[in-house]
Amino acid sequence: MFMHPKYLPFILPLFLAVTISAAQPSQRPAHRIGDVKVGAFDARNVSIDQFVADLSRRTNILFCVEETRSDSQVLEAGVTLSVEENEPLNHVLDHLQLQHPEIRWSIESGVIVIQTLAAQELKDNPLNMKIHSFEFKGSITELISYLNAKAPGLWASIWTDTPIIYRGNYTLRADSDVTVREVLCVLGRDYGIRWYAEIRPPLEPNSSTGSGIKLLVRVSLGLLQRGVPVPVE
Known about the structure:
This protein is of the alpha/beta class. It has one domain: Phage tail protein beta-alpha-beta fold (3-Layer(bab) Sandwich). The protein has six helices and 13 strands. A hairpin with a 2-residue loop joins strand 5 and strand 6. It is globular.
């Protein structure tokens, strides 16, 4: 299966050109998505999250997911699709989107992001929040706290059943403004950490969180089974 916490053992890294990078950026060249071949297989009424997980295992490309709490059942919808031997990955994803117009796919800093339509159209999507240029080094818990401090109003939390993620040290740098989503994608590309983000209804100013509306997102993290992913463009 795919990005929900109950499906968590697998991951991939990313590439964001000049804007943001790891301290020791990977020299792996980005693959053109039209040149990536999935290989022949038949999907028969498997869930969207399972289908996307299969694509990731076959290509070693990192897929991450973004949805809202209100449409959390979208990724459980069934997929029936026959993929030909030399069919490029972008064609497969286009067919998936045609079959399920409630989802969208895009490439973000070398990672493929699957969004539900509700998440893409959300006016106050916390992953769209901008963070000014920065340099960070520390644990994953410290990174999430850092993002919350750098993006006023953001209230992100994390969950993982992979303890090694908590023990890691991560270094990221941005030379210009980037979104929270871009930061997560670079983390994925360069450290093999895949993410699944569930956007929750905002808390109003009079809540117990203090002044100002809080934009909530729950980020679940897992590791790609084959280690460092292949970046795409």
